[in-house]
Amino acid sequence: MAFNFFKKKIHIVAPVNGSIVPLEEVPDPVFSQKMMGEGVAILPKEGNIFSPVNGKVILVAATKHAIGLRADEGSEILIHVGLETVALNGEGFKMAVHDGDKVSVGQLLMEVDWEYILTHAKSTITPIVITNSQERKKEYILTEEKEALQGKTVIISGS
Length: 159
Hints:
Glucose Permease (Domain IIA)
């Protein structure tokens, strides 16, 4: 307890506008059973995907459907845009960053054609998962908000 003030805090903001959905309600067992880690999902209403943290890009999926970030405090965050979007082979996505890039909260990560994804993929629901949540000694708190405003709504916080 005396050392809590040494721990770095994290605030992950919404990367896109939309409705916040508990991870358990994502219609994919990899996410709903938290196999990838703790997090939430957003059912996007509009807009592109922006960085939810200050950090570094550690993964840009070859099929452009997902991006991984390492926050400055060490949390590794996966933003998986839609479900079964790997099969789109990059169609509907335009990356604005590359592996190794430093990013700031609110910086554009990718442009998304939601209409294309809605038509060609299983769902537009977008899980935001802390992939190293099990191995870190952090307590993550998930938002109780129902609506996400990109860059404003804190969806996950931790210390």
